[in-house]
Design a protein that fits this description.
Layout: E1 3-7, H1 12-23, E2 29-32, H2 38-47, E3 55-58, E4 63-66, H3 68-78, H4 90-118, H5 127-147, H6 161-176, H7 184-195, H8 197-206
Helix pairs in contact: 1-3, 1-6, 1-8, 4-5, 4-6
Length: about 220
């Protein structure tokens, strides 16, 4: 098979790429990487010296592509399907990329700060950093809420790269910093994302790993 994706089904940035692949029924081989396994980590290090996933290997074109947003752009360019995740119009494409970055930087990143703090040893927690992360999530939630006043998906009526990014980011953010009643449009959007067949499949594949999600202590 031409395409191989080095990933883990519970990792949010891997889920982002999986959504894109499933949206267009793009054939690929999933290579599961457990970062706690020395052999798996060595294999990931072999294909990408930063040793972070996801990484896409394309045997046909003899290249490797790291980073979730770049992978989806690559798929849109070389393996397009019926769902155009990156619009052809330059202005629309730029705004789509902006909101892809928005969900990565202002939803996923602070969410990961909160999760990461739960993994710290006793006495080394970062209460100030977590408070900053929660404040940033509240700001992001408010901006999403306003944007969705007249939109089904982030960019309007068309599902896009931005929604691939939003789905796992909001899913995990809602666990550590719940949307609650203050953001009804965003909560409804997350539900639409969960019901989207591509993300529903991702959620089924991730289900066995929820036990590893760190609980609040």
């Amino acid at each position: 098979m031409s395409l191989r994706l080095y990933s883990h089904p519970f990792a949010s940035f891997c889920q982002k790429v999986l959504i894109a692949l499933y949206e267009n029924a793009t054939p690929f081989e999933a290579v599961l990487i457990d970062l706690a396994d020395e052999a798996d980590r060595a294999e990931l290090l072999r294909v990408w010296r930063i040793a972070k996933f996801p990484v896409l290997l394309d045997d046909t074109r003899a290249c490797s592509v790291p980073e979730s947003s770049i992978i989806i752009e690559y798929l849109s360019q070389h393996y397009p399907g019926p769902v155009a995740l990156v619009p052809e119009d330059a202005d629309a494409a730029r705004e789509t990329r902006l909101f892809d970055r928005f969900y990565d930087l202002y939803v996923s990143e602070p969410m990961q700060k909160i999760v990461g703090d739960r993994l710290r040893p006793a006495g080394q927690r970062d209460a100030f950093g977590v408070a900053q992360a929660r404040a940033l999530l509240d700001t992001a939630y408010g901006m999403i809420e306003a944007r969705l006043a007249d939109k089904t998906w982030t960019m309007g009526q068309a599902f896009s790269l931005a929604d691939c990014s939003a789905a796992p980011a909001l899913l995990y953010a809602d666990v550590v910093h719940p949307l609650g009643p203050a953001y009804p449009r965003t909560a409804a959007y997350l539900q639409r994302l969960r019901e989207r067949p591509s993300f529903a499949r991702v959620l089924r594949e991730a289900e066995p790993f929820w036990a590893i999600f760190p609980k609040e202590s």
